[in-house]
Amino acid sequence: MRRVIAQGTFDILHPGHVHYLSDAASLGDELHVIIARGENVTHKPKPILDDRQRRDMVAALDVVDEAHLGHAEDIFVPIEKIDPDVIVLGYDQHHDESGIKAALDARGIDCEVTRATPREQRHDDELLSTGRIIDRIVERRC
């Protein structure tokens, strides 16, 4: 059985998330998704939805076998428990593939690290990133 991990914040699910998770699922037999805890999100605005709601939304997607909350102090703890064959990063996530691979190697976790493909925008107003959704909400409030 080939286990795949995808990870992210997944605040306000959108077509880009669905594509990412579907792409990741296609690389194995079992897709585990790690949901970042809100307290650990530092590279963008804090999530609108709380941790459990975001986990429950991701878990409801057919392509997801299990959704897990990330560890509050050590992002590698759930990865060690899941023992994946591959970690799939979102095509636009800020993570450095070689840095992640080095950290995995240092912990004795032998798995591939790759990137998902981008999703082509299908219509002009389709939102494929949470950042663009938040921008749209702010525009409508002003």
Automatic annotation (TrEMBL):
UniProt KW keywords: ATP-binding, FAD, Flavoprotein, FMN, Nucleotide-binding, Nucleotidyltransferase, Transferase
A single MF term (Gene Ontology): FMN adenylyltransferase activity
Domain Cytidyltransferase-like span(s) in chain numbering: 5-134
Residues that bind ATP: T9, F10, H14, P15, G16, H17, D92
Top EC class of this enzyme: transferase
EC identifiers of the protein: 2.7.7.2
GO BP terms: FAD biosynthetic process; FMN metabolic process
Parts forming coiled coils: none
Reactions mediated catalytically: FMN + ATP + H(+) = FAD + diphosphate
Pathway(s) the chain acts in: Cofactor biosynthesis; FAD biosynthesis; FAD from FMN: step 1/1
Family named by the database record: Belongs to the archaeal FAD synthase family.
HAMAP family registered for this protein in UniProt: FAD_synth_arch
Protein name (record): FAD synthase
Species, as recorded: Haloferax prahovense (strain DSM 18310 / JCM 13924 / TL6)
Lineage: Archaea, Methanobacteriati, Methanobacteriota, Stenosarchaea group, Halobacteria
Gene: ribL
